[in-house]
Design brief:
Elements lengths: L2 H18 L3 H9 L14 E5 L9 E6 L2 H7 L17 E8 L13 E7 L8 E4 L4 E4 L4 E8 L1
Antiparallel strand pairs: 1-4, 1-7, 2-3, 2-5, 3-4, 5-7, 6-7
Length: about 150
């Protein structure tokens, strides 16, 4: 991982943690509105986890890089540490930095949405392009994670 990619990952992680509390009501609100029963993830692709506020179904994204295991574990635990009931073994998950391909910006990543995707036995390579399916369900309201599936682009 280059210094630039590491800084990008740290910036995104820092931003995610800062906004964690502000956006915590989103998952709770979605459950209250019945969106938590939107259905199970489609069987067409591999089941993955993505933050509720960074879920953009059927929008193409590119894999920027993989996350280090320690970072993946930290992101899949409660802020300050400790497991959530839905994820007893966060080290069973692989994590990746992804960037939505929204056009413009000359491909430099500025003004783009960069986030993470997690999955058990998930194997993605830098530069791979995928999309999230339009079928998702609340996975963890504590961590603001949705469960959905990946589709090839």
């Amino acid at each position: 991982m280059t210094v630039r990619e590491q800084q990008d990952a740290e910036n995104v992680e820092s931003e995610e943690r800062r906004s964690f509390m502000k956006k915590g009501a989103l998952a709770t609100g979605a459950l209250a509105l019945g969106l938590g029963s939107a259905g199970s993830a489609s069987a067409q692709g591999r089941n993955v986890l993505v933050y509720t506020y960074d879920y953009h179904p059927q929008v193409q994204f590119r894999v920027v890089n993989s996350l280090e295991q320690a970072t993946t574990v930290r992101l899949l635990q409660r802020p300050g540490g400790g497991n959530v009931p839905e994820i007893s073994q966060p080290d069973d998950y692989d994590g990746y930095i992804i960037r939505y391909l929204l056009g413009g910006s000359g491909g430099d990543g500025r003004g783009q949405i960069t986030t993470f995707v997690f999955g058990r036995n998930l194997s993605l390579s830098q530069g791979d392009t995928r999309q999230f399916s339009g079928d998702a369900s609340i996975f963890s309201s504590t961590l603001n994670l949705l469960s959905t599936s990946l589709r090839s682009s």
